[in-house]
Write a structure and sequence with these properties.
Layout (H helix, E strand, L loop, with lengths): L1 H14 L8 E9 L2 E3 L3 E12 L5 E9 L5 E8 L5 E5 L4 E5 L11 E10 L3 E14 L4 E7 L1 E6 L20 H56 L1
Parallel strand pairs: 1-10, 2-11
Antiparallel strand pairs: 1-3, 3-8, 4-7, 4-9, 5-8, 6-7, 9-10, 9-11
């Protein structure tokens, strides 16, 4: 019941003007490379820090990701905190992140969102968030101070070094040595098979964890629909 009350309150907070008293404060900071080249891909993290007077920590955030789209473009974006489900309206770059459990509120410096950009033209821009909203566990509004990331995109393309072919001369006297190398290579392949089995086991474990998270995603479906309608 408490979860439903929170989600409903947060929907109201994000979709209509709010005049609620802000109980606490926090900082939203963007970190990453400050200088890149045209064609480079680089990651920018959105971090929540300096949380004060937020009951149970920050459990909800929202806002518009802003930058000059004539010099940068978004390649990919995702949550940087597995406790938060993130919803994004690509047409307006609006994001909403919620800890649906209400049990993992942010109280110290934590990365919550990751954006992969690509430089497309020479220039300068600031990656930031506008109309930022933060909420604590009791659905109280938390004042957000936003520190953007200034990025310079240089029109310098990476130099590609020419790879020259390497020729190996095999003499007859080295035949026995070659056989030894083949045997060692076989052992390495056997180790590789064992490593693959370990990786497979890890994938199965991740799948189980993902299935558990699906329960929370079902609860958040209605919120996703509301967000799409009003954005």
């Amino acid at each position: 019941m408490k979860k439903g009350i929170f989600v409903g309150a947060l929907v109201t907070l994000l979709c209509i003007p709010s005049y609620a008293y802000a109980k606490g404060t926090a900082t939203i900071e963007f970190t990453g490379n400050k200088t890149v080249n045209v064609g480079d891909e680089f990651k920018v993290n959105m971090v929540i820090d300096n949380v004060t007077d937020a009951e149970g920590g920050i459990v909800g955030y929202a806002g518009y990701i802003k930058f000059d789209d004539s010099v940068l473009e978004i390649v990919d974006s995702k949550t940087a905190n597995n406790y938060f489900d993130v919803y994004k309206n690509d047409s307006i770059n609006k994001i909403v992140g919620i800890d649906m459990t209400l049990n993992h509120g942010i109280t110290s410096r934590t990365a919550v969102y990751e954006i992969t950009f690509r430089g497309i033209n020479e220039g300068n821009t600031t990656v930031t968030m506008t109309e930022a909203d933060l909420s604590d566990r009791d659905a109280n509004e938390v004042d957000a101070n936003v520190n953007g990331l200034n990025v310079t995109i240089n029109a310098v393309k990476p130099v590609v070094e020419e790879v020259k072919p390497v020729y190996t001369v095999v003499k007859e006297e080295n035949v026995q040595t070659q056989e030894t190398v083949v045997e060692e290579t076989a052992e390495i392949k056997e180790e590789t098979v064992e490593q693959k089995e370990v990786k497979t086991t890890k994938k199965v474990a991740k799948k189980t964890k993902k299935q558990e998270k699906n329960l929370l995603k079902i609860v958040s479906k209605f919120f996703k629909k509301v967000f799409k309608k009003v954005a």
